[in-house]
Amino acid sequence: MSVMNVRRHHISAAALAAVTALGLGTLTACSSDSAAAGNTDKFDVVASFYPMAFLAEQIGGEHVSVTSLTEPGQEPHDLEISAKQTAQLQESDAALYLKGLQPTVDEAVGQSEVKTKIDAATLTSLEEHGTEAGGHADEHAEEGHSEEEHAEEHAEEGHAEEEHAAEDEHGHEHEGGKDPHIWLDPVKYAEVAEGVGKAFEKADPDHAADYKKNTAALVEKLNELDTTFKTGLKDKRTDVFITTHSAFGYLAERYGLTEESISGLDPESEPSGARVKELEKMAKADGVTTVFYETLVSDKTAKTLAGDAGLKTDVLDPLEGITDKSRGDDYFQVMEANLKALQTALGAK
After folding, report:
1. Which of 170, 55, 24, 29 is nearest to 118 (CA)?
2. Pairing state between β 240-243 and 258-261
């Protein structure tokens, strides 16, 4: 277990029951926005992190009270659930989360008695990306295997690897784990939105018509974003981009790009010297101009590589949270900023 940002709360079942029995009135008074609601007269939704909270707000509109378990600016993978949040989860009408991204959330939701549990990972198909920070995908490409064939082979080999990955602290970073970053592909995110909309309709039938209408509007906007990306990345000088970690596998696959990551799926792992040399060589061969880093993770590795290889650096935001540093106030604004950054880096006309 990483010791970063760990705030453990060892409490007994009796103490937890007492906290829950107090209701959330006491808790709300001293909590932040991200740990506020629960037990309101609206449809209370606890979301695991920003992309889930955004869906809940867009689909639920005025009928929902949405709370995010992950604070703005907090790296979601490092989240440790507090006693207050566990109690809040018990009081909610629905939990919306993405299994495999935040193991402590998976555990808390699994143990809670919340009526409606919505796992976004079941609402679209997950694939494997960046399973080794290095030429793993390239080797398979050379062998003539598509990524999908590779994923199918793994699926046929059984689910033991996935179960093992889920036990890992950063479950999705374990080799053989599925990539959870589905929200960075507008098409997959729209599929998730449709599933969430249906779950809301079922759980809160009084407002089903509004949930249906809001879902349709959101899906239409996501389809428009997909078209904007397709058009914006059609004519470009290079297809290859370098990132600090493999968050953009789905986006790359959707728009015919190749993501090369410095550190694989783990945003905090240090790359090997061989990997850095390999990336320098590849950058030269493929006309790469830019190394991308993120807002919530240190830019040190990206800047070191860029400095050594004579490349520029820029931000490509995996949208795991919105902060003052984000290039936009919501999902759509930040995705449009990501598109501009990619267009510049790839020499799109």
Report:
1. 55
2. parallel
Tell me the C-alpha distance between 69 and 250, whole Å.
25
Which residues have a Cβ under 8 Å from the Cβ of 54 and sit 6 or more positions away?
330, 331
How far apart are the C-alpha atoms of 36 and 28, rounded to whole Å? 5
Separation of alpha carbons 47 and 108, rounded Å: 12
Measured between alpha carbons, how far is residue 299 from residues 214, 304, 315, 331 in Å?
A: 37, 9, 9, 22
Taking only the tens place, the pLDDT of each residue in 182-206 is 999 999 999 999 999 999 999 999 9
Q: How far apart are CA 211 and CA 219, in angstroms?
A: 12
Q: Could you tell me where the DSSP H helices lie in the chain? A: 13-21, 25-29, 50-60, 83-91, 103-111, 136-142, 147-156, 160-167, 186-203, 208-232, 249-254, 273-286, 300-309, 331-346
- Which amino acid would we find at residue 226? D
Note whether 313 and 293 are within 8 A (CB): yes
pLDDT the model gives residue 4: 41
pLDDT at 305 over 50: yes
What is the model's pTM?
A: 0.76
Contact 282, 262 (CB under 8 A): no
pLDDT higher at 268 or 1: 268
243-283 confidence digits (pLDDT tens): 987 899 999 999 999 999 887 656 566 677 888 888 889 89
Average pLDDT over residues 39-59: 94
Instruction: Give the whole-angstrom CA distance, residue 320 versus residue 75.
Output: 7
Edge to edge, what strands does the sheet with 64-68 contain?
64-68, 43-47, 94-97, 116-119
CB 67 within 8 A of CB 60: no
Rounded to whole angstroms, the Cα distance separating 36 from 258 reads: 41
